[in-house]
Design brief:
The protein is built from nine helices and no strands. By secondary structure, it is an all-alpha fold. It has one domain. The two termini are 43 Å apart.
């Protein structure tokens, strides 16, 4: 999703700029006062609405929209199957030796609870609580962007009112009517642009990424509980494949086949 985010923003602004150039000059749409009113007002409103740490967390979360989705469901399923095979052959305590090979902190925490001898109800409760607060943190960042999408057009309208008032005050001076009207209209333009090319798209982007992460975490939780219950690795795989697409299942099949070929070659040597 990272490259599509960049292409969408760049392409959108390119379309706007081309449209402006086809009908006039780009300088006609550059007004420092309008930018100051719209962008400055939106930022200040967000500072009033949310604590600074939450705003900083939101800024940090934007990198995920531009970096793209790094999750690999097929790889996680393969790892869970490997863990299930180890637990079935050597017992749950043998999983402790594999903890360092688990990169995902959510999955690693679940396996640690199993190794520590926690019962299935406790494991499920702890991991569901972890999952809930992960989503809460995501939702707080999304709410900041949603608020920004609402504030930007509002301050654009405020700038329009300022421009109209200045225009009415200057009716006797025809030379001031043009600049005042420019501020009035361009400020609304900036508000709509900031809301619909920045805040709203990035909010939906993070919401989509959050939903994908939640699905993968739920899949891993299902795998953790299945390992603890001693289920057959083949049955665990069938259960986890319900969470992913056909393309990701094909990737998983290819990796399993490659692992079998590697193991067969090692035995022959």
């Amino acid at each position: 999703m990272g490259i599509s985010t960049i292409l969408g923003i760049v392409g959108g602004f390119a379309c706007i700029i081309i449209g402006i150039l086809l009908n006039g000059r780009i300088t006609d749409f550059l007004d420092p006062a309008s930018i100051f009113i719209t962008l400055g007002g939106t930022i200040c409103a967000l500072i009033v609405s949310y604590p600074i740490p939450q705003l900083l967390d939101t800024l940090k979360s934007l990198k995920f929209a531009f970096k793209g989705q790094k999750e690999d469901p097929a790889r996680k399923i393969q790892l869970i199957i490997d863990l299930a095979n180890t637990a079935r052959k050597e017992g749950l305590l043998a999983l402790e030796n594999m903890l360092e090979d688990i990169p995902d902190p959510f999955l690693r925490k679940g396996i640690m609870l199993i190794v520590d001898g926690s019962n299935s109800e406790l494991v499920k409760s702890v991991m569901e609580t972890e999952l809930y607060y992960i989503q809460e943190r995501h939702n707080r960042c999304i709410s900041v962007l949603n608020a920004g999408a609402g504030y930007a057009p509002a301050f654009g309208m405020a700038g329009t009112l300022i421009g109209l008032i200045a225009m009415l005050v200057s009716l006797e001076d025809a030379s001031k009517l043009g600049p005042s009207m420019s501020v009035a209209l361009v400020t609304t333009f900036y508000g709509v642009l900031i809301a619909n090319f920045f805040f709203s798209p990035l909010s939906r982007n993070l919401k989509t990424l959050s939903a994908q992460e939640q699905m993968i975490d739920e899949m891993m939780l299902e795998g953790i509980l299945s390992i603890q219950d001693g289920e057959n690795p083949r049955m665990i795989r069938d259960k986890l494949e319900a969470f992913v697409s056909g393309r990701e299942i094909a990737v998983l099949d290819a990796r399993i086949e490659q692992a079998k070929q590697t193991a067969s070659a090692e035995r022959q040597e």
